[in-house]
Amino acid sequence: xxxxxxxxxxxxxxxxxxxxxxxxxxxxxxxxxxxxxxxxxxxxxxxxxxxxxxxxxxxxxxxxxxxxxxxxxxxxxxxxxxxxxxxxxxxxxxxxxxxxxxxxxxxxxxxxxxxxxxxxxxxxxxxxxxxxxxxxxxxxxxxxxxxxxxxxxxxxxxxxxxxxxxxxxxxxxxxxxxxxxxxxxxxxxxxx
Length: 192
Description:
Layout: H1 21-32, E1 39-43, H2 49-57, E2 63-67, H3 84-101, E3 107-110, E4 127-130, H4 136-146, E5 155-158, H5 165-175, E6 186-187, E7 190-191
Parallel strand pairs: 1-2, 1-4, 2-3, 4-5
Antiparallel strand pairs: 6-7
Helix pairs in contact: 1-2, 4-5
């Protein structure tokens, strides 16, 4: 049986990130309604707010994989160049936040760019949360290469869908025209 945000009060207290409470609920609900087992993959972890949410929602038999290079880049619209010291700080805080929430043993962390981590995840993805680089090219690559690994009946959630022109453009180009995807709603800028 999985823990959840209601039985783990304070799990997200002090964890920096941009997920609003309704977005946390959407992430939690995407996994909570699934059968046992399966695999959850997160592209872009920052300091762990979404990773903690996904890990707490996952049944004990589910794999939770979080992919982030923690380069200190792509943290915001004007932070494209790598800043190694900032990346190391983000990485240390991410790992500390997972440990503080008690989910560090539930998460397999892949410190890599999403485009380089495709071979690190071998089976189908039941729930995919995309919140990586927000520029058009990397966002489109994430939706194509990772989204195409979600089978019929799976769920993809994309953060900043309506607030980042690169992500919006990638969604319009790949997902809108893809027969396999159906828009199910949103929580602010988080598309389901």
